[in-house]
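Per reviewer request, we include the raw input and output of the structure prediction for the construct analysed in the revised manuscript.
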Amino acid sequence: MSDPREELTWELFGSASRELAEMVAADGFEPDLLLSIARGGLFVAGALGYALDVKNLHVMNVEFYTGVDQRLDLPVMLPPVPNAVDLQGAKVLVCDDVADTGATLKLVRDFCADKVADVRCAVVYEKPHSTVKCEYVWRHTDRWINFPWSTLPPVVQRRGQVLEA
């Protein structure tokens, strides 16, 4: 029986992020800044930043997933929230690892909507039930994804700012 999970390795991520950048470039979209959705989107934005020669990267912290296929009722934007002045009139590429339900991407797109000239999304994976259809997608899947940055358990468990052994 096959594993019901999609497996992304670091090596495959390198190829995926390069192909994603090529899609953006081939489309003629030249973002002024990349807006990564932390935490998985940090890897995607970093790779795309180098491939697209965009040094202006911003981070938006959004909490939604609490475990494997476990999530909050709604995604929550965590501080610090990007300054709207920094986004004003910009062409923004929102970067994330996966468009699963689409709720996180919708929250970020809605945040940008009235502030930017153009906002588009780039993800490594998009699931068929995502409410947001991204402009740039490396692969579509309906399986749970093992990302190389989140497959292993943390070295320490953090609860707020207190480390537990």
